Structures are given as C-alpha cells and as structure tokens.
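TL;DR need structure tokens for one chain.
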Amino acid sequence: MTGEPKARLIDPLTVHVPNEVETPRLLLKGASVSLAAALAAARTESYPTLHPWFHGDMGTETEEADPDWQAAQLSKQAQDFEQRSNLTYYALKEDSLIGMIALQPIWRRGQMKLTYWIRANAQRHGYATEAVTAMIAVAFDNLDARLVTTGHAEPNTASARLAQKLGFQQIARQPLACELPDGTLVAGIAYGLEPPPHPPKAASR
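>> reply
TL;DR here they are.
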C-alpha cells in the first residue's frame, strides 16, 4: 500500500541504548547483578501487591527473596540488554531500589512494549509516572520508536489510570487474555502511544 510504513532493516547491536537515564528524582539504571540483594528485598516486600498481576513471570515467594536467584535473573536481563532483545532498567532513589521499568523492542516494526512495577512502600508518590515518562522519551528520542505499547489485566485499575494519564489510547480489549492467580480469566487491555511532533529529550548517559 502506498504510504504505509515499511519494516526496518536494522541491526539492533548498532543502536545506541543509554545505560542510565536520569529523571528529577530517580536514576534508571540497566540491570546488573550488583542489584541482587536490593532486588530481593524489594520483591519480598512487594510480593503481595505484584503477584496478582505478574505471577506468570515471578518466582515463588522463596525464590523472589533469594539474592542468588535474583542474581541469575539480573544476569539474564543484562545479557538481553547487551543483545538489545529486552531493555530492563531499575529505578533507584538515593541508592534505594524502588522499581523496574523495561522496553521490549520489535526493532523491525519500530514498536516498544513497556512494562513496569513500583515497590509497595514507594507507591502513590508519582514515581511510576516519572519513570514511565522518561522511558517513553527514550523510546521516541533515543530509539526512534514509531509506537510504544503497554497493557494490563482489566481489573488492574491503577495501571489503567496511569496509561490514560500519560496519553496512551486504548487499542484493544481481548477477552480471556489474562489469568489471575486463582485461575479466573479476565480481559486484557492494550494501549498505544505514537510519538509527539517534538518528543522530550531524556537525560541519559
């Protein structure tokens, strides 16, 4: 079709991806095994709030509390970062780990899928908004994204509020897409965000 975008022939290893991204209150830092103990503490504290929405990607409560188990996860995330297959950052506030934010690129399409979580004791302070805003800027400004997507299980109203606040538009509602820990099947909500005419610059290095 005339005027339709084309797939990009791109070598992801040639793309410059910032290792760190600064926001007014946070440092978003690429995954590193040095964060294992802090990550184990954050996941242990937040297990009850994260498990309903991330149980499919989580370990057991015992595994999540184990720094050695977390070190193995971080090692894999760091490798994926180097290969540009998944870009995982951890949000630090004055050396305290308060959450995670990641972009999963589909380089040929120019599409980035965004996921995030904030630890229990750091919620309701605007950190998710700050981190997601910065990662959107990285996607559009640094990575030349055409589309950033995100999604959540329909009952996750907090994620819905944040997506709408940041200008994401609902692009799909898929029945039976998400399974809750008790086996209940609920709809999945998908959102998309296209680049603004002049995307904000992300402070990175």
